[in-house]
Amino acid sequence: FWHKFLYDIGEVPTPEPYAKRTSHGMILGENGEKMSKSRGNVVNPDDVVDE
């Protein structure tokens, strides 16, 4: 929104702020909380590879 506004008033030179946008989603655990090493609710990659 702000980039479009700034483009419309001539403050930024390009109509889009990025050539390609990506979204980084947050991974949630079983109980809906953010997965975090400090919370201890992460998956050990070695366990996944062993399966």
What report would you give on this structure?
Helix content is 25%, strand content 0%. With 51 residues, the chain is mostly helical. The longest helix is centred in the N-terminal third of the chain and has 7 residues. The N and C termini lie far apart (46 Å).
Please provide the count of β strands: 0
- As a percent range, the share of helical residues equals 25-40%
How far apart the termini lie comes to 46 Å
> How do the helices and strands follow one another from N- to C-terminus?
HH
The largest pleated sheet is described as:
none
Shape descriptor = elongated
Category from helices, strands and their pairing: mainly alpha
Instruction: Assess the beta-strand content as a share of residues.
Output: under 5%
Number of helices: 2
Q: Segments where pLDDT lies below 50 for 5+ residues? A: none
- Compute the CA-based radius of gyration: 20 Å
Mean pLDDT metric: 84
